[in-house]
Write a structure and sequence with these properties.
By secondary structure, the chain is mainly α. It has helices at 24-30, 50-54, 69-78, 87-97, 100-115, 118-142, and strands spanning 33-36, 58-61, 81-83.
């Protein structure tokens, strides 16, 4: 079904297409597996796979991801994403990932990739905040 054009999904809905990028987060949160279809479109360059991975979805993607190649590479190396080159490969990958443990393993690997730099980012933010606090204190003392 196409989100927005059809009635709400029911228990028979197996595939949902969302055209509006603003809707993607909702689906990444509930879908154990997401196929990032823009990766099949020539000239588009793909979309950022970290959004899907950060929200707990295993990632399937096509070969046209030049704008985000390092991100897809990191996820694929960690086992969080798989490339599919055609409809047959997509069908096979989805068939394998229907097993909840398979999708969960990929989603967990994606979370590991996404969160591996979080501690360092937190330290940098703390350092910047400390420096800003020092500057504010110095400017208050001069005033």
């Amino acid at each position: 079904m196409r989100w927005g054009d059809d009635p709400y999904p029911d228990e028979t809905t197996q595939v949902m297409v969302a055209d509006d990028p603003g809707d993607r987060g909702l689906f990444f949160r509930v879908a154990p597996v997401s196929f990032l279809g823009s990766s099949l479109v020539s000239g588009h360059g793909g979309c950022d796979p970290f959004e899907a991975a950060a929200l707990g979805s295993a990632v399937l993607y096509g070969p046209k991801v030049r704008n985000f190649l390092p991100s897809y590479g990191r996820l694929a190396t960690a086992g969080a994403a798989r490339i599919v080159n055609d409809a047959g490969a997509l069908g096979n990958a989805v068939s394998r990932l229907i097993a909840p443990d398979q999708a969960a393993t990929m989603a967990h690997a994606g979370w590991d990739v996404i969160s591996e730099g979080a501690e360092l980012a937190d330290r940098v933010i703390d350092m910047v905040q400390d420096r800003l606090d020092e500057e504010m204190g110095a400017s208050d003392a001069r005033a």
